[in-house]
Amino acid sequence: MNDIAQPATNELNRVFAAAIAREDQWRQLNAYARAWADAKSGTDAREEIRGKCRKLLANISRLEHCWAYPGTRLLDSLRGSLEGGDATAFARLVQKASAALQSGDFRREDAAWDTNADGDTRVIDAMPPDIDGGVGKPYFEVLIVTPSDPAQWQRADDEVRRMRRPEDQFQYVPVHVGSFEDAALAVMVNTNIQSVVLVDGFQYASKHDLPDLREFLKRNMDVDQGSVEPGALSTRLAQAINGFRPELDLFLLSDRTPELLAASDEAACIRRVFHNIEEPMELHLAILDGIKDRFETPYFDNLKKYATRPIGTFHALPIARGKSVFGSNWIRDMGHFYGTNILFAESSATTGGLDSLLEPTGNIKKMQDATARAFGAKLAFLGTNGTSTSNKIVVQAICKPGDIVIVDRNCHKSHHYGMVLSGAQPYYVEAFPLVQYSMYGAVPLRTIKKALLDCKAEGNLDRVKVIDMTNCTFDGHMYNPRRVMEECLAIKPDLVFLWDEAWFGFARFNPLHRARTAMGAAAALTRRYRSKAYRDEYNAWKEKSANLDDNALLDAHGMPDPDKVRIRVYQTNSTHKSMSAFRQGSMMLVWDDDWGQVEGPFKEAFFAHTSTSPNLQLLASLDLARRQMELEGYALTMRMTELALRLRKTINSHPLISKYFRVATPADMIPPEFRESGISDYGPPHGSWADMIHAWHNDEFALDPTRITLICGAAGFDGTQFKGILASDFDIQINKTSRNSVLVQTNINNTHSDAALLIKALADLSRDIDKRLEQGGQAERAAFDARVKSLMTDVPDLPNFSRFQDAFRDNAKARSNEGNMRPAFFLSYDADNCEYVRLDSEEVERRLKEGPEMVSAHFVIPYPPGFPIMVPGQVITADTITFMRKLDVKEIHGYQHALGLKLIKPEVLAGKSFSSTR
Ligand SMILES: *Cc1c(COP(=O)(O)O)cnc(C)c1O
């Protein structure tokens, strides 16, 4: 048995870990309790192990007041058995509590709550999960922050229980706390909490002995006692909770005039204000109603109803209601495999409440509103053809021909195609390269600002419409969107931002990731620019920097004029990549102060790209994914993050595994100039958790820990090969590879067992390599070293975007690099305009040296890395050729090896201009 677990307070700073750490501690207490019960009576060993139980129980107890289960009764019983020396009873109770916590049985089974002290607990209404459409009677906890005497809390609980009605759709158990600090702590660590009731008059300071609680609150919620006025405790707590977990319903019970309070700005985040305990039943119903709002899935609910109605179908879609399937002689297995419901839920009708995705007025409209609320946007639209199409819709909605878009060259191809479709001119900017791993990072803010200022110098600033970036990147680079937008808006106050958050939709649901999301930043900046404090800060800055020229502005933190600035932010996300939606389920989120200008074009773009037969199941799954995140997104995203942090730590500190494998740390993935905090890895010993949170909030880039770049080159595997081994030998699927790494990501579905499986695979492989090297002697060793060297050090340079050929430039001499890609793209439609040169031909060498310039006719996109090495109209330079020659991947879109590079013939371009299409 290992030694006593860390005291709970040391774990406290690890926000992500609190809930998991608690389960671990209960598991450990269970092991001690068994050992105590098994130890021979009367021995020193027995007393010693009892001492350990006492110490660990005391540690656990420090935070237990944050949860309803196991609760005071069970804990009191436990202490009773411990002090009374009844090891058997103690072990039995610990076993029960620990098992119920691990399995979640306390949500469903009243027996889990029973202490045997008195038989009449009846805390939970058990209901088999197959009743009620498969979810049973979902359980949650309500936090009650109250000035009342703790001796009264048990009675209050019993009262709540008496209010339950059989027809209630959900059930809850209250958790009482007596102070601001305890409430904030409970909201952070207890993921079962869905609603908070604030009873005016509670105190600020916790009575519990939690020395680092204050620091913790300051870091995570930005509150300390000094900053809260005694009269404003309730509203301040409501705001702090709302900032941390915006999905929670807040209720206030107050003696003050509730009418006045309800209308005040401070109380805007409070769902309802009641006059002190006037109507306990009203409060009960309001609590349930709040859950119902999040639980309701308007589209899915209706689809279920629709599927059970007897309907004769005379519209298209023969499989609707399974008719062509179950009656078939040849394809009945389709029905068996997919089940009846999916066929019963198929229809091509837009009546029967199914609504139309193209002109929503009913369920789909409601679903969009719920999505916007859940994801913190002003508006939300649903995509049924992946973010590939969502990006094209947004690009086409916000750009017209001739507009300049400052865009990461490295972004998903849908953006590039979006430019072709809209006629917008891309100004390609480069992410910082991570040559050692053959990948790109993200685009530095300075690069983006320089592009803006270049356009300004050319007199083209008015044409720059959009900044288009990927957040986070495939490999986990998270931008600091607040900072990027603020400094860009200081140069042009009405810029539109498109943040492709394909991987990052989940990020809304915990405060650490949320700070780095587009919508989180839009909300934060809106608040900031409306504040008096900002106006003062801005005026001071303006005075100080009156004669700052553009060169100086490049390196200064510019501030936008609060009277001119517009918040115009678009986000797209592949809901299917990070949440429980079917493949291709995607969302477009909007926060645009000038939506009036975009609404019409957005509709056009939506019509242009959206099928008139969108998949109903896919829409329903978007509805469900939203429900899940609004009710358990906090718990799930905290867990996936904690799991990732553990994986990282385990791999990098494992004596055997770390010989051959390594997870890239923030220090590896982000150059120091973009990591101002200097933080090198997550948490101790690399800095405190508080340092990590600080870095996460402030550094130019931070690394999302859930995206784990596992370097396999030092084990002699290239990325593709390693991906194959993991899949074939260990049943582990991973996503992306580079020359010497693979990307492992944790998701809301991952468990400890998944993590264990990966660790085991790495340990097995490391052992194999050890053995092979031992037995193979000198020759084997030399071959291995050479292989590692080729993978880890002889990596090709990544080619930057060269430039558009002059014929596609409005001003060939401009220092900004935008070009008109659309005509180049369409030139290639006419075979007479094109020619091929083979990569290995003499001609390539000659033309690189003597011209005429080789100009790409196509997008050429190798997978990996998955971004265009060439775009239509781009001049092909020597680095690109070198890169292509070294490239050892099979899938290269837009390139046929046998034919060679497809070029636009020089004579088609000579003396011509395809620039202005405006
Ligand atoms: C996957 C991805 C897309 C495309 O999304 P789909 O839902 O697969 O169509 C767009 N952008 C980025 C950054 C992606 O990773």
UniProtKB/TrEMBL annotation:
UniProt cofactor(s): pyridoxal 5'-phosphate
Lipid metabolism among keywords: no
Protein's recorded name: Orn/Lys/Arg decarboxylases family 1 pyridoxal-P attachment site domain-containing protein
InterPro entries xrefs: LL-DAP_aminotransferase, Orn/Lys/Arg_deCO2ase_major_dom, PyrdxlP-dep_Trfase, PyrdxlP-dep_Trfase_major
Residue ranges constituting the Orn/Lys/Arg decarboxylases family 1 pyridoxal-P attachment site domain according to the UniProt record: 297-521, 566-745
Keywords: Aminotransferase, Transferase
Source organism: Noviluteimonas lactosilytica
